[in-house]
Amino acid sequence: MNNLHFTSEKGDIFNKDCKAIPPYNGCLLIMRKAMKNPVIANNKPKQVTLNQGEEYYFCSCGKSSNQPFCDGSHVGTDFTPIAFTAEQDNEAHLCMCKYSTNQPYCDGAHQQFSQADIGQEISVTTKKSSGMPVAKNY
Question: In terms of pTM, does the model score above 0.85?
Answer without folding.
Answer: no
